[in-house]
Amino acid sequence: MNFETLCIHTGVHKDTQYNSVITPIYPSSTFYWNDLETNSGYDYTRSGNPTRDALQENLAALEGGVGCVATSTGMSAVHCAMALFKPGDHIIAPADVYGGTFRLFSQYLTEKGLTFSFVDMTDLTAVHEAVEPTTAGVWIETPSNPMMKVIDLAAVVEIARQAGALTICDNTFLSPYLQRPLDFGVDVVMHSTTKYINGHSDVVGGAVISKTQEHADRVAWLCNALGLACSPFDAWLVLRGVKTLGCRMDAQQANAMKIARFLDEHPAVERVYYPGLESHPQHELAKTQQQGFGAMLSFDVKAGRSMAERVCMNSRLFDVAESLGGIESLISFPVTMSHASMSAEGRQAAGITDKTVRVSVGLEHSDDLIADLSQALAS
Ligand SMILES: Cc1ncc(COP(=O)(O)O)c(C=O)c1O
Fold first, then answer.
1. pTM to 2 decimals?
2. Among 8, 13, 328, 370, which residue is least crowded by beta carbons within 10 Å?
């Protein structure tokens, strides 16, 4: 089946009693047993729930994996995937990894005995040189947040394979509609389903999808043991959102392309970070491993911080807000918002400056969005 069909038809028809077309929500925390030996296959919702299973089936199919766990947030998905490692393991991660992931890695997981090297992963020599005898994992996030650097999936997987390390890819920015890391040899994919997969800014959630049964079983065990699974209602909302993923992404990335071109030619803008622009350093790579360029972009204004702040505060259609991937356009200032949890040195290494503005392009009409940015840039 094609992607759009899978989105709509996987994980449905769970209701054999009334034949509802839409997967029902089973909010029950517990399920009664037929006798002391047998039950319906469900006993307690932390461990398993039919609505959550429907979502997990759906997301595993979309990413081409064998198993999925749907978690309460994207960060719980990161935590779940990272629980595959043990103290003493060394992990290589991108220098401009999402700020919350950076905080978990550099503080909590470092306190728990894991070690990390944060490198510019567009530089394959740097990735290679970061490998240590204890390297057990390589964390990939591509395109990166907010600098939109594109990491060569196949090449990094090859370096990890030679090191005997597991690869995990945060695929939040593109969704499986535009990129399927497992097809490039990545072992585990994670998502903040809060973003494009749900797409309507009305739920926080996450997912971890595995390529092999061994990893799928371990991740499912960890998710239950750590208590990370999402609620049935949240699973139902995400399952509803994912049905329109393909057409939302098509429309949002078409808008993003127009906005990127507009910003690229604007005299107040120093630089635009969008892989769809021919000038983007990894434009050719993006064309080979992505099915599109996505709807996230960042730009540096020429006049520095006060200008960046004014653009954010004077835009009328773009709400100044964290998050991304919803149907409404958002604008943000990474230094005080998404990447505030990163140290100033960390931000500097990642290339995030106080003139960088990030935009999540929504489904509004592109003419209205461009007119709004135009007046904000003139302010
Ligand atoms: C790339 C990326 N990964 C993970 C997360 C964490 O997801 P959540 O906020 O759903 O916990 C985010 C959140 O912004 C993100 O942008």
1. 0.97
2. 13
Residue 232 shares a structural domain with residue 137: yes
Q: Which of 198, 223, 242 is the last residue of a domain?
A: 242
Tell me the pLDDT band of 349, cut-offs 50, 70 and 90. Answer: confident
Q: Is the pLDDT of residue 237 over 80?
A: yes
Cis peptide before 27 (omega within 30 of 0): no
Q: Which of 168, 195, 337 to mutate to test the pocket of ligand 1 (most atoms within 8 A of CB)?
A: 195
The mean per-residue pLDDT over the stretch 320-335 comes to 96
Burial 170-196 (b: 16+ CB within 10 A, else e): bbbbbbbbbbbbbebebbbbbbbbbbb
Those residues whose C-beta lies under 8 Å from the C-beta of residue 288, and which sit 6 or more positions away, are none
Note whether 183 and 204 are same-domain residues: yes
DSSP-derived letter for residue 44 is: B
Domain boundary among 227, 242, 257: 242
The reply to whether 195 belongs to the active site is: yes
